[in-house]
């Protein structure tokens, strides 16, 4: 069985790092958010994709002073040894102070000076203690003396109290400046050059699979210069490839990857990007903003708002749900643009069935079973595989290339894999040959997320019967009979118009804000900004900065400038993963020491070369490593001097993709008996070899035979006609296999326990020792013959 030591190595790496003589940081464990065990178990809820459908909720009010440590100011009021005015009557002073605290005039003055009742309680308590001290500064002593004897206006004490409070909480001094900086009431005016244009907004709205993007893309392809902005890198890649295929050279820009259509790596006139990467500097003839309903997304909505308000394009094509029309019209009033709305209807019919699937035996080719956790996906797949049904698998955390490979396998009419098991990650972005969507459940399995919302149901359901694909009609149902009613209820739920668009401070605003509060940590700066920000509540809401705050907390002890920390707080790290958080902290620490992060450092810490994962837990670990490499690539775009080995990291990521893809199969194999494993192994191998090899024809015949779902019978004797393995070995011995495929075969061999137990025959582990090809084949042949002769 393959061992998987990488995760523990990565965990060790952070501890070792902490112990280094000069390294500080790694307070990550103490400051980290609750560990994943404390949170709902459902891994799909952690899945980035599921967050795509989260809407804004009202926020709690928070006092700034509760997150800023008060400075010590007492000594400044005790500098004079001699009071010069004799002893103060302490009881009389107490009475003066009480009168002060009860005065409505003082309350008004406090409000005017941004001192809330809560802050007043904190500061006044400290001020009173100071006033009752023996050695008071002369001027305060004198005033208190007058107030206690002459019973003058207690308001005269206010300047002293205010000065004291401002010493205690210095942000009170620059409140006006801070208020100006957090004024987000007119975001449309942030883009001065864009506002100089009158843009034509063309909305393409309708249900899924109604041709919205298709129509917008027609303009993109015809334009002299154009940009396409969308939520997922897979979508951006698809548009980029499709544009290049249609003869319009198109670049690609995502957080981790920038590619140019031009062979000299010069930027071209067309670019497909993830929405956060939208280029607001250059002018375009046409811009397409896809999935506009995500403007209301709690975490990422700001990126759609920024793209919509800031893009310098003559025409902006906005695609998405009809629910976004009123908001976009309102925003267009603020920007002074014209709006045209094109409505579309679904191109292929979609039918919500009145019967549930109920049994795995009722699964049919073209079915896509939607599950809301990775664990359930593997269980469902294993159940289907046991019944001889091959499955493709897609979930959010898989590398894009693996998702594409799985989608391709499922879409290929010649491939025996006809059923897809996936999370809601398929709700956006992939074109799939789905005939029927089957919801395995309608809840995300925990109280926090509860039942999924109607928008998500519609998006997922809409993937069935996609126009231009093989099934002209789509169907939707549930696995459990008890969920059917809820499905129909969700389908019939009225679409609520989108109320407001997300906002987030720009890096420039945050930098200026931090200049006024040089001692505040980034996390506190973010909290303060969020708290102080004022916006037009009719049309906008403040996005949650939770992810940024979590990352800021991890690196707040590192001495990087706030500007860099702010950049780091945008890195796509899964904060539920300890390994990713630790990797992130170490990267930031090395950056602080200006130590380049090389491939050799990375690989030694990642335990390279890795072994192929064979269990779901191993697979998860490998996905985590893949995500760590994504973090590296993301940072390499901002700090190429520190993250110098971008190309090499890309190469090892490609290797990981292959292993993750193979590991997916291995995880399913784990749950099968030997005969079932062999059957599946053969089908996979043949498909891989035939897709690669010029002698494809020769292999297609046995491949066709092996499609049968039946397992080989024990008493079947081997002969060239019915033993697939012998057929294959013969072919391979003739030299019909590339080195790459031989490597794959070696990896596949791990599934045969007999093979592993006889390792001495061919050397050590097949993955590591690159065994002699003929030896392996001879060994395999012998094994096959022995097996059947028994
Ligand atoms: N007029 C058309 N001619 C040919 N193909 C079309 C046409 N309209 C749409 N299609 C194809 O139908 C499929 C669905 O179209 P498209 O992706 O534009 O729909 P959509 O409404 O944007 O869907 P979603 O909301 O799910 O992204 C695509 O494969 C697209 O190429």
Automatic annotation (TrEMBL):
One of its GO terms (biological process) is mitochondrial RNA 3'-end processing. It comes from the Eukaryota. Coiled coil: none annotated. Residues 689-724 have a biased composition (Basic and acidic residues). Its main location: mitochondrion. Pfam families: DEXQc_Suv3, Helicase_C, SUV3_C, Suv3_N. Residues 685-725 are annotated as: Disordered. GO terms for cellular component: mitochondrial degradosome. It is an enzyme of class 3 (hydrolase). Keywords: ATP-binding, Helicase, Hydrolase, Mitochondrion, Nucleotide-binding, Transit peptide. One of its GO terms (molecular function) is hydrolase activity. The keyword ATP-binding applies. Residues 352-514 form the Helicase C-terminal domain. InterPro entries: DEXQc_SUV3 (IPR055206), Helicase_C-like (IPR001650), P-loop_NTPase (IPR027417), RNA-DNA_Helicase (IPR050699), SUV3_C (IPR022192), Suv3_DEXQc (IPR044774), Suv3_N (IPR041453). It is found in: Mitochondrion. It catalyses: ATP + H2O = ADP + phosphate + H(+). Belongs to the helicase family. This is RNA helicase.
């Amino acid at each position: 069985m393959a061992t998987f030591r990488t995760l523990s190595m990565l965990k060790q790496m952070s501890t070792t790092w902490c112990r280094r003589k000069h390294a500080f940081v790694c307070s990550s464990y103490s400051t980290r958010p609750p560990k994943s065990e404390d949170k709902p178990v459902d891994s799909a809820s952690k899945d980035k994709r599921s967050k795509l459908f989260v809407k804004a909720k009202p926020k709690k009010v928070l006092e700034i002073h509760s997150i800023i440590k008060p400075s010590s100011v007492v000594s400044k009021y005790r500098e004079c040894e001699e009071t010069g005015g004799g002893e103060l009557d302490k009881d009389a002073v107490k009475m003066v102070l009480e009168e002060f605290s009860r005065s409505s005039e003082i309350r008004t003055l406090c409000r005017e000076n941004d001192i809330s009742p809560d802050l007043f309680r904190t500061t006044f308590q400290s001020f009173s203690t100071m006033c009752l001290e023996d050695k008071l500064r002369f001027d305060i002593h004198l005033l208190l003396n007058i107030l206690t004897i002459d019973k003058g206006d207690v308001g005269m004490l206010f300047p002293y109290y205010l000065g004291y409070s401002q010493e205690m909480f210095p942000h009170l001094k620059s409140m006006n400046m801070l208020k100006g900086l957090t004024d987000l009431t007119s975001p449309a005016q942030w883009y001065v050059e864009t506002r100089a244009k009158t843009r034509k907004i063309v909305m393409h709205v309708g249900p899924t699979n109604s041709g919205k993007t298709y129509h917008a893309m027609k303009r993109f392809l015809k334009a002299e210069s154009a940009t396409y902005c969308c939520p997922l890198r897979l979508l951006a890649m698809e548009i980029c490839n499709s544009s290049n295929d249609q003869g319009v050279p198109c670049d690609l820009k995502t957080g981790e990857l920038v590619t140019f259509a031009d062979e000299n790596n010069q930027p071209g006139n067309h670019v497909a990007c993830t929405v956060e990467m939208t280029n607001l500097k250059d002018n375009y003839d046409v811009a397409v903003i896809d999935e506009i309903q995500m403007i209301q997304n709690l975490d990422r909505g700001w990126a759609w708002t920024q793209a919509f308000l800031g893009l310098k394009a003559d025409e902006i094509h906005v695609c998405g749900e009809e629910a976004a029309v009123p908001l976009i019209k309102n925003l267009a009033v603020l920007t002074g643009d014209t709006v045209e709305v094109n409505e579309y209807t679904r191109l292929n019919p979609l039918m919500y069935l009145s019967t549930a699937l109920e049994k795995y035996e009722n699964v049919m080719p073209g079915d896509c079973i939607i599950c809301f956790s990775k664990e359930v996906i593997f269980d469902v797949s294993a159940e289907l595989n046991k019944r001889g049904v091959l499955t493709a698998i897609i979930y959010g955390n898989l590398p894009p290339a693996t998702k594409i490979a799985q989608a391709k396998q499922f879409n290929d009419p010649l491939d025996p894999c006809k059923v897809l098991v996936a999370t809601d990650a398929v709700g956006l972005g992939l074109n799939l040959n789905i005939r029927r969507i089957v919801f395995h459940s309608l809840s995300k399995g925990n109280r926090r997320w509860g039942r999924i919302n109607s928008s998500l149901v519609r998006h997922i359901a809409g993937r069935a019967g996609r126009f231009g694909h093989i099934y002209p009609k789509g169907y939707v149902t549930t696995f459990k009979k008890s969920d059917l009613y809820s499905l129909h209820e969700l389908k019939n739920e009225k679409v609520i118009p989108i109320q407001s668009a997300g906002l987030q401070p720009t890096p420039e605003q945050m930098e200026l804000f931090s200049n006024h509060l040089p001692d505040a940590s980034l996390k506190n700066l973010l909290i303060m900004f969020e708290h102080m920000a004022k916006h037009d509540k009719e049309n906008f809401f403040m996005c949650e900065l939770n992810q940024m705050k979590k990352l800021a907390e991890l690196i707040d002890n590192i001495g990087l400038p706030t500007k860099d920390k702010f950049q780091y707080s945008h890195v796509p790290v899964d904060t539920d993963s300890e390994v990713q958080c630790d990797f992130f902290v170490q990267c930031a620490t090395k950056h602080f020491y200006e130590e380049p992060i090389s491939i050799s450092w990375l690989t030694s810490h990642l335990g390279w070369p890795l072994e192929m994962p064979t269990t779901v837990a191993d697979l998860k670990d490998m996905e985590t490593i893949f995500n760590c490499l994504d973090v590296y690539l993301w940072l390499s775009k901002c700090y190429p001097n520190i993250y110098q080995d971008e190309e090499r990291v890309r190469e090892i990521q490609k290797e990981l993709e292959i292993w993750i893809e193979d590991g997916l199969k291995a995880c399913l194999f784990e749950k099968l008996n030997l005969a079932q494993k062999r059957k599946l192994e053969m089908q996979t191998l043949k498909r891989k070899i035939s897709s690669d090899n010029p002698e494809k024809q020769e292999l297609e015949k046995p491949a066709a035979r092996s499609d049968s779902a039946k397992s080989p019978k024990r008493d079947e004797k081997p002969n060239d006609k019915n033993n697939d393995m012998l057929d294959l070995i013969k072919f391979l011995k003739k030299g019909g296999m590339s080195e790459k495929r031989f490597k794959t075969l070696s990896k596949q061999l791990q599934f045969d326990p007999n093979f592993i137990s006889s390792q001495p025959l061919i050397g050590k582990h097949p993955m590591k020792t690159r065994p002699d090809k003929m030896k392996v084949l001879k060994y395999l042949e012998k094994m096959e013959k022995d097996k059947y002769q028994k």
